[in-house]
Amino acid sequence: MALRLVAEFDLRKDVLAWLRAQRAAAAGAGARGGGPGAGGARRGAGPAGRRAGSPRVPRGSAAGRAARGNHPTYGSRPTPVPSREGVLENNYESLRVLNVERNGNIIYTYKDDKGNVFFGLYDCQTRQNEHLYTFEKDLKVVSCSVNSERTLLAASLVQSTKEGRKNEFEPGSKCLTLLVEIHPINNVKVLKAVDGYIWVQFTYPHVKSHPLPENHLLLISEEKYIEQFRIQLIQEEGNRVVIKHSGHLPRERIAEDFVWAQWDMSEQRLYYVDPKKSMSILKCIQFYADGKFNLMFEAPLDISVSDSEFNLVNFGCDDLQDQEKLSEHLKLHVFTNHTGSLCLCYSPKFDSWEEITYSVFYFHKGQSKTFTVALEHVGSHVRKGITFLNFDYYVAVYLPGHFFHLLNIQHPDLICHSLFLTGNNEVIDMLPHSPLQPMSGSLVLDQCSGRLYRALLNQSYLLQSLWNTQLDCEKMAVLHCLLSCGQDPRFQEAKIIQWISENISACHSFDLIQEFLIAASYWSIYPETSNMDKLLPYSSVSSWETEIPGISLVTEEIALPLMKVHSFKGYWEKLYANLEYAKYSKPHLHYHNSMVRREWHSLISEEKTGKRRSMVFVRNILDNAIKVISNLEARNLEPRLIPLLQEDDKHQRLLMGLMVFELKDHLLRHLLGVEKKKIEQMVLHYISKLLDLTCQILEANWRKHDLHPLVLHFNRRASAAELAVFHIMTRILEATSSLFLPLPPGFHTLHTILGVHCLPLHNLLHYIDNGVLLLTETAVTKLMKDLDNTEKNEKLKFSIIVRLPPLFGQKICRLWDHPMSSNIISRNHVKLLLQNYKRQPQSSMINKSASSVEFLPLNYFIEILTDIESSNQALYAFEGQDNVDAKFVEEAALKHTTMLLGL
User: Fold this and answer.
1) Alpha helices in 358-444 (DSSP H)
2) What are the residues whose beta carbons fall under 8 Å from the beta carbon of 653, sequence distance 6 or more?
3) Single pTM value for the model
4) What is the mean pLDDT of residues 781-793?
5) Start-to-end CA span in the chain (Å)
6) Which of 361, 382, 470, 745 could be cross-linked to 368 through a Cys-Cys bond (beta carbons 3.0 to 4.6 Å apart)?
7) DSSP string covering 114-159
8) 203 has pLDDT over 70
9) What are the residue boundaries of the structural domains of the chain, listed by start?
């Protein structure tokens, strides 16, 4: 299935066994005469366990007196873990998770047969359980939190009904919010005694060196306000930690008149919606270790939120009965990640069960997308409601039994980068039908089973879906998902290359090789800086017009969040940069190779004409190429199967070096504040990755078809395997040429050799004339030396030589001892001598030597050449022409004429 849930905690497995052991120990102590309470309520399972004293309401506080007037004393005696056999099994339904704190510790509760409320903590690091506290009264727990030092327990409780039913309220029943000293157990302070729900949450600063002298507790009221209590602690003799000035705890109002709030435990942020007359406002408050907090931003929301609604997210764990009513309320959830993204997912109340609508506000991009999904089969379990899950670069939208959508929040512009699985997919039915509560990060809680999962994308399923899916949009989405979220990039790339090799022509909407090269190179350096998605192309596709089956989509521009502070660090600095880009940089800043194309063609043209700009510039460009190849070789220590990167392909080296030069200049202009050395390393890494991916594709196909190094020789016939590899190389060349990307030196040589093997002569020449096959010096030299002079091979050699540039062809002709080669050399020699020749008056008599052939036009021509050679040695003495003169031209002409006449 697309979603893989890895259990981090199982209430039954990780808690139940410990409770049974504690119950057995208590029963054993009672049998020895200690009585049921002899052992006391122990606070821990380890050696630090202490006797639990009797909790009491402080006598000096008005709140305490009021509480004692309305309620009996709580915790009037130490209570051991229940000892009656079967009680736990019979009351297992009361065992549930209450909260997951920032450090991963899990608070849970259950009731014994007398209705006493037991609070326990599971330490995710040590994997041990700890008894925190027991309230000796039949109460319902609304919310609970423990501070990071485990010295204070905050709990909000209400009385159960007279009928004993749980999770319901008596009209007018009181909700008590208590603060308990539990190190060791000392006093109980009443923070609130009100008619309505109260939720509690300790803030968790990242401070590990020493305990903080002050704790901070958030109280969230159903009356739509949030307060922060400042709790100072002192340590007395015997390591007793008590509240200082417990009679008066300073507090301050954080927010009020809100209708929805979400607590981000991992980042210590509070999001809430303030309903205004014209438009609701999303606000965010950042909390710090010293208890200070800042309003970070305000963002207008074009959604319908009623003043009468009230909904909290991640303030503890939702009650089971509340889960059943999820579909009756709107759902909001905010997701962020380390790149500075800010998304709000919104699902309104369902008016119809035939189709469902939800929206995603990409605040970091300045746009929103509203998706409407038609439901094919409506069953009872649809009323569980939509679940939104966070996967770093993705947000999953999941409706049990119906659909699973994976939305790309980094690149929402193209809908084909998001994956949409429908109810027809059997994978959907494999996902849990019970509602999942998203916690901080990728943690999700299944409240029904009491399991805490880490939600991961199933890489095996995604790889399999590459082979099974028929839609181009799904192939595109899965490809990007694998490259961005894969834990082992090298393994993922190898699997994708295998799929590409088997399905090279399977996609009609985009080029598979292009998309793979661009996307994989992009994701290889994306984590190094958060602005890469603005500066580098992440897809070869610029637009996508094809509709997604079963999905209708409306995209709108939205107002950007207004930042309320002016000093940014960490996430806020990245979010601010994203907002500035969305605000001012509408034209795309993506790098493209147009400048490289122009420069490269200019250098090649200068080379052909013999004119060359500053050699220092060319030397620097070639030095850049050397760095790229060195970086590439350092990345792959294993020997290569095919001879790539071994020859001096000057044209490809120029292309590599120019790309380094232009890309580095592009990033330096736009990546402000990043060191020049780091940018240079990123550029080398990016271009090396491009070349390495090309090498990987070739080697994978070489290995797949079991080709032997003898392929590089001409004295054998081509096989079907060679033809398949030649076809793949042609597709690679086509993909890289349109994007003007460099190829590893040696690519064109291998491609040409395979072309000579696999193609008839007329097809081979057609490929050469149209630039599909590029004639490198290595390939042509090998062809001239390895092929004998049969009639077929002579025709091939001559056809190749006449297509070479003059200087290159002149050099190659010397490797072929043949009249045709001599004729070509002679032609080039004559052309050089006569290019500046001015006709001079000549005598009518022709001087004849004794050995002259009676062929007057040739004799006259040779005399002219001899005269030029003798009068201007500078034109004659050019490189490689030591044995070429008028006499050589005469002999070559006669041999060629004889050959043509068949004499």
Assistant:
1) 426-430
2) 622, 625, 626, 745
3) 0.82
4) 81
5) 79
6) 361
7) T-PEEEEEEETTTTEEEEEEEE-S-EEEEEEEE-TTS-EEEEEEEE
8) yes
9) 40-162+169-196, 257-590
